[in-house]
Amino acid sequence: MPETTRDPAAPIGVLLVDDQPLLRMGFRLILEGEDDLRVLGEASDGAEGVALAATLKPDVVLMDVRMPVMDGIEATTRIVSEHPEAKVIILTTFDLDEYAFAGLQAGASAFLLKDVAPEELVLAVRLVASGDAVVAPRVTARLLETYVRDGSANRAAPAPERDPLLGDLTPRELEVLGAMAEGLSNAEIAHRFFLSEATVKTHVRRILTKLHLRDRVQAVVYAYETGLVIPSQGLDY
Length: 237
Description:
The chain is an alpha/beta fold. The chain has 10 helices and 7 strands. It has a 5-stranded parallel β-sheet, with helices on both faces. Strands 6-7 form a two-stranded antiparallel ribbon.
């Protein structure tokens, strides 16, 4: 089930998890320059990140994927499972990285390139904390398209079957889910279907609730994994 939206008046608490001290320092300097963001702590590996998430209760975790002791994929799985109120942003070097794909499957809400511009980092943290949007949705869709089409996620997996939960969605909700899977923003979805953005937000909220999904990125993952989106062929609903 999607989590209750956080208090927008409270500072956004961020946990940095990366084995590169200079990168953590750079991110800290950027984030702490914003009045509404607060760095709660830093971890140099996934195990330390899991432990700090339990004690610091961050809103957002910036998570590297390739670290000693425990990698970012296992750490993301643990944090999402044990602290569902925390949103994880995967940090990666390449935009089409199998680790980033695995991170999304593990429950991460978004991913960013490590050389992200400061203003994009700040925006990403705010968007993920709000739960209303995803970071670079078209890039996320392209990542999923690449690894689902190539079978990199699980080469031995059988063809996906239609999820019975899709039957709980109205025809309009199916259309909105399809648009979400394309990476469209609320404004773009509203324009396509001649709806208000408030109505689109209501549809998105109901879709996440009915399908037991955490956020919009997980809806994109769901659409690909259940066969709602057929790679290179578009939507199949």
